[in-house]
Amino acid sequence: MTDVVLSDPRPLLAVLVSFVAALLIVASHRSPNVREGWTLVASLAKFGIVASMLPAVLDGTTFEWTAGAFLPGVGAPIEFALRADALGMLFAFLASGLWIITSFYSIGYMRGLDEPNQTRYFAAFAVSLAATMGIAFAGNLVTIFVFYELLSIATYPLVAHDETAEARSAGRKYLAYTMFGGGVLVLAGTALVYLLAGSVDFTAGGIAELANADPGLAMLAFFLLAIGFGVKAGIMPLHQWLPEAMVAPTPVSGLLHAVAVVKSGAFGVSRVVLDVFGPELVFDLSLPLGFTAGLVLSTIGAITLTAASLIALRKDHLKRRLAYSTISQLSYIILGLGLFGWYGLVGALLHIPAHAFMKLTLFFCAGNIHVSTHTDYISQMAGIGKRMPLTMGAFTVASLGMAGIPLLAGFVSKYYMLIGGVRMGMNFTPVAYYLAGALLLSGVLNIAYFWPVIYTAFFEAEDAHDAKPLVDFPLGGESRSIVAATDGGRGDDHAATDGGRGDDHAATDGGRAGDDADEGRDGANEEDDDAEPAGDVDDIVVEADDSDGPSSAPDGVDESEVPDADLDDLPTDEEGVVRPDFAATERDFSEPAERVDTGDYAVDQRPSDADVPFGPGRDDANSTDTGKPDAGDADRVADADRGPDDPHGDHDDEPHGGHDADTHDDGHHGGPPPGGWEHIAGLDALRGRESTWFTLGPILAAMTLAVLLGVIPYEMGFLELIELIVDARLPEGVVRP
Questions:
Q1: What are the beta bridge partners of residue 83?
Q2: Ordered alpha helix ranges (H), 160-239
Q3: Strands 4-7 and 61-71, bridge-based pairing
Q4: Are 77 and 71 contacting, i.e. CB atoms less than 8 angstroms apart?
Q5: pTM for the complete prediction?
Q6: For residues 668 and 635, is the Cβ–Cβ distance under 8 A?
C-alpha cells in the first residue's frame, strides 16, 4: 500500500454543503416541509461526499484541498488546509452518517412538542455539522482551532434553544468552558508547538522536530493542547458545562453531546497524541515519580470515568444520568489514547463509533419518552415498559452495550483497551494494571446506574414502586405509588387522599361520592363545590393544641378537613411543617413505608433532592403566582404545585420550555396518568401506537448499528480503518502484535 496525496475539492465540499443548506433552511422558513426537506437533502449529500472518499482512503490515499499559505513566520508557512486522511475519515464518516438519522428524529421530536424557533434550530444544526466536518478534515492545528471555535458558536443557539433562564445560563457556561476556556488553551498550545517545531501540520506519528525540543516546553505544549481539547470531551474538573447543556432539546443532546461536540474534543486529543506528538514521544516525555505524559493522560481518564459513574448513580433525571455517563464513557477514549501499544490505541479509536451508536440510542429513547409521556425522572417510570416496549427495549440493548456485554459495540472497544492495559503493564510499567482495573470497575458501575432504569421500567408496577435507595434514600428503599393519586389513581378521583371513591373531589375523611361540601365548611366554600381547602397545615397544627373541639382557623379552614390522622402523631420539622417520615432508624424496611395523608400529591417527591413543603393550601398559592389551573384538577396538580426548589421545576427536563406545555400534551406532566400506563403490545407498537416512526425509526436504526459494530466490526469498515490509522503511527517494534 502506498500513501498518495490527491488534490481534490471533496473535503471542502463536505464542509460547504451544510453552510449552503443553512441558507436554504432560513430562506424556506415559511414552509416547514421544504425547510426540513433541505435538511434531509443536505445530510444525504454530505454523507455521499464523505462515503465516496472512503474506498480510496482505505487504500492509502489522502484527499487534500488548500487555500494557500496565510501565516508565514519563523518556520514553514501555515496553510488553511483540509485533508481527508484515515483518522479524519473515521470522525467524518461517523458524524455525517448519524446526521441522517438525527435529521429524521429531529423532525418527529420538534413537531411532536410543537417547538418554537424550528428554523433557527435546523439552520444552527447544519452549521454545526459544517464545523464538525472542518474539525475532521483539518490539516493542521490552526485549521482545527478555527473550526473548533466555530463549532462552539454554532451550537450556542442549540443549547439555549428554549430561551429560558436555565437555557441561557447553560449556553453561557458552555461558551465559557469550550470557547473562552478550551479554545484559549488550544491556541496557546498551537503557538508553542509552532515555536518549538516550526510547523503545525498533522503528521502521522508526530512532528519529528518536537522530539528534539526542550522536554519541559514540549510537555507544556502537550498538556495545553490535551486539556484544551479535553474540555469539550468533558474531562474532570472541566465537565460542568455538559450536564447543564442537557437543557437543550434531546436531538441536540444526542448528536452534538454524544457525537459532534464531545467527540470533537476526543478527536482533538487523538490528533494531538497521534499526529502532533506521536504515541512514542507521548510515552517518552517523563515526569517525576516515573510517570509519563501518556500515563498522566490515562490517569486523568481513569479518575474521570470512575467519578462520573459514581455521580450518575445519584441522578434521578434520566438525561442528567446519561450526561454523566457520557463524561465517563468519553474518558475511556482518553484513557486508551494514553496506553502505549497497538491494542490500547485500537480500543480507544473504536470506542468513538461504539459510544456514538449506543449513547445516541439512549438519548433518543429519553427524548421519545418525554415526547410521548412527558416523563423525565427515573422514579416516575415504574411500569413504563408496557407503555413503550420498543423504546425501552432499545434502551436496554444500548445500556448493555455501554456496560460492555459481549456481542455489542461497547464490549469490543473495551476488550481491546483492557488487553492494551494488561500488555502495557507486562512490558512497560505496572501502573497500567491499575488502569485496567479502572476499566473493569467502570463496567460494574455502568451496570449499577443503568440497571435501575431497566428494572423500574419492566419489573415494577406504578402502584407499588420501590423507590431505589441510590436515587431517593433512605437506605433500603421504600414502596410508593407514582400514579396521579395517592390511592393508586382511579380516573375520577381528583383529590382523594384516603382511598376516596370516584367523584370524591375533596374527601379527607372517607367522604361519600359526590360529597362536595363537608360539614365544617363555611358559606364561602359551599358556593364552590370544587374548591380545595385553602388552609395551611402549620396553622392547623398550632390550633390543634389550643382547642378542644372543631373550630375554624383564621383563614377559614376547619379542622375537620385535616386528613384522617391523629394530629399529635403527624411528623413535623423544627418549624412545625408536616412532612412524611422517611427516617431509616426505627422502621422495618421489609414492610411498605407508612404514608402520611396530608392532602398533597407528594408521593413521587424525592426528599433527598428537594425541600418540598407539604400541606393543603400550597396549590392555591402557587396557582395565583403562576397562572396555572386550580389544584383541584388532579391531572395538573403534580405540575402546578412544584415549588422553586423542586427538581421537577427545573426546566432542563422540558425542552419545550418557552411555551405552554398544555397546548400539546395529553393532560398530565410526568409519570403515569390516572389508572396507570396504557398497555401497548408489540404489534401495536410496530403499527405506530407507541410513538411516531420519525422518532422510533432512528432509535431502532442507532441500536442496530450498535449491535452490528459488536458482531461484525471489521465488515462495517470502522475496525479496518482504525487498524490502518494505528499501523501508520506506531514504531515498527510495536505495530501489530
A1: 64
A2: 165-177, 183-197, 215-232
A3: parallel
A4: yes
A5: 0.75
A6: yes
